[in-house]
Specification:
single chain; mainly alpha; 8 helices; 63% helix; disordered N terminus; disordered C terminus
């Protein structure tokens, strides 16, 4: 409420600082404010319904169906609301101030939706519907952006659109936060597979070449061979055998001496 009070207090100053363009008499002004107000209030009620339905979710996939049904209806209301608001005429200064109140209440309602969904995110992961919820939130954010643009376009031309945008921007920021949270870890709904083996621990290093030890001290040099040493003497050759005739004579002489 303090935000709205401060915003409302700025409106007269903004109007004075901006050239005032005379608006033609518009008998539909009140009806157009009523249309915009009803669109916003209906969306607020649907947000509260979504919060209540999400609060009953316990992580079973079948129990996510009612949540998706209610959020689907919310998405439909956002889109239809944008069409309805776009078909209205520009509203006056007083109605512009009044329309900020349902915008503020919508901000609070969206905050409740985002909070309950984030609180239940682990259960959505378990049920395997995280990406489904993320996609739905993304669609709702886009539809809410279109609705906000349509509402701001209906403010009087002497009021800068930033006033309406500032009042509604928190709605878009909160939806964007929810989308990011569900998109970033949506794949956690899948059962984790076995972890890939990490790199094998390095085994003991192979021994390198042994460091060379100290060189052995050189032994005493072998004594040089004595050049004067006598060469080994070959045994004497046997005397040649006596001729056969000589042997016969010797035998004959020996026999003669024996007979004497």
């Amino acid at each position: 409420m303090l935000f709205l009070s401060a915003l409302v207090s700025l409106l007269p100053l903004t109007a004075l600082a901006t050239p005032i363009v005379t608006q033609p008499a518009n008998v539909k002004a009140v009806a157009d404010y009523a249309t915009i107000s009803k669109v916003l209030n209906d969306i607020i009620s649907q947000c509260k319904k979504l919060v209540a339905t999400s609060g009953k979710f316990n992580g079973e996939a079948i129990d996510a169906v009612p949540i998706l049904d209610v959020s689907g209806e919310l998405l439909k209301m956002l889109k239809e609301g944008q069409v309805k608001v776009s078909g209205t005429e520009t509203i006056g200064l007083t109605d512009s101030i009044e329309v900020l109140y349902p915008v503020y209440n919508l901000n609070t309602a969206v905050d409740g939706v985002v909070k309950i969904l984030l609180d239940k995110k682990a259960m959505f992961d378990k049920a395997g519907v995280t990406f489904v919820v993320a996609d739905r939130l993304e669609e709702e954010k886009a539809a809410a952006q279109a609705l906000v643009t349509a509402v701001v376009a209906k403010l009087p031309v002497y009021l800068p659109g930033v006033i309406g945008t500032t009042a509604a921007q928190p709605i878009l920021d909160k939806l964007g936060k929810a989308v990011a949270a569900f998109k970033s870890t949506g794949d956690s709904s899948a059962a984790p597979g076995p972890a890939a083996p990490g790199p094998a621990a390095p085994g003991p290093a192979a021994p390198g070449p042994a460091a060379p030890g100290p060189a052995a001290a050189p032994g005493p040099a072998a004594a040089p061979a004595d050049a004067t040493a006598a060469a080994p003497v070959a045994p004497p050759a046997a005397a040649p055998a006596a001729p056969a005739k000589l042997s016969a004579r010797a035998k004959s002489a020996k026999g003669t001496r024996g007979s004497n």
